[in-house]
Amino acid sequence: MSNLEGIARHFNLPHAEFDPAWDSIMLAKGTRERLLAQSLLSFTVRQKLPFEAAPMHGLILLTGAPGTGKTTLARGLANQVAKHLKGTKCKYVEVDPHALMSSAHGRSQQAVAKLFEHTIPEMAMDGAAIVLLDEVETLAVSRHQLSLDANPIDVHRATDAALAGLDRLTREHRNVLLIATTNFPKALDSAVLSRADHIEEIGLPNLLARREIIADTLKAIGKVWTKVSDLEAQADRLAKVADGLDGRRIRKEIFSAIGSDIETAKDPNRLTVTQIEAAFKHSLKLQKEMAA
């Protein structure tokens, strides 16, 4: 935890806590290598060329629906970047955007300005700083879609402060890499999108990814309740049923299936494929009803 305003936590990288994060999200082939390569550009090309020649802002943006693993992936990416920057002291900084928003007049703008102009630069004084801006639309909401009649002018000013701070970081602190996530790219100010060096959409898992998620979850449960391991052989079947669910929901519904009746909840070894299928189908039905 951190006592700094707007900072959820910060520590040195690489960090063992983030090692599993890099591989835990099932992605299409080549996605991890692409994200890592694009991130490393901030510490190679961006360091050597002027902004006018290489207009890079040091911003990687991950977009996608909730539950697709963007935050986990971002943490894993930060850890991997640090591992490749051998000989460079790296610090991880995780921003809590909600802590910066305030109903007090002018308070949000001041807090956002302080984050970009003082707090983040101070974190990068003796090395590289890799900053996670989770739910970045909270900091830089689309000014085009907001109405001054319905939204306080402070929200607009906070977005202005975020953009000004981002530009200042770009020019004065090239040892800072920002990894931002958003569930709602349409709610994000277009000026932020234009500043992103790379935008990666993290979509719903495909058939192969769903199979891996299901098998991985059953394997973990099977380490304690050994009969559950037998269900891994049905991962292909279950993956087809789970089409339309995000990775987080797939994992949750397997545990929901364990809690589908008292006897299975008391002894997860009783879990069946039928129970898991029913949990997936129920979740998909609810998802469809909520979207209607």
UniProtKB/TrEMBL annotation:
Pfam family, one: AAA
Molecular-function GO terms, alphabetical: ATP binding; ATP hydrolysis activity
Transmembrane segments: none
SUPFAM superfamilies for this protein: P-loop containing nucleoside triphosphate hydrolases (SSF52540)
Domain AAA+ ATPase: from-to ranges: 56-206
ATP-binding is among the record's keywords: yes
Protein name: AAA ATPase central domain protein
Organism annotation: Terriglobus saanensis (strain ATCC BAA-1853 / DSM 23119 / SP1PR4)
Lineage, opening ranks: Bacteria, Pseudomonadati, Acidobacteriota, Terriglobia, Terriglobales
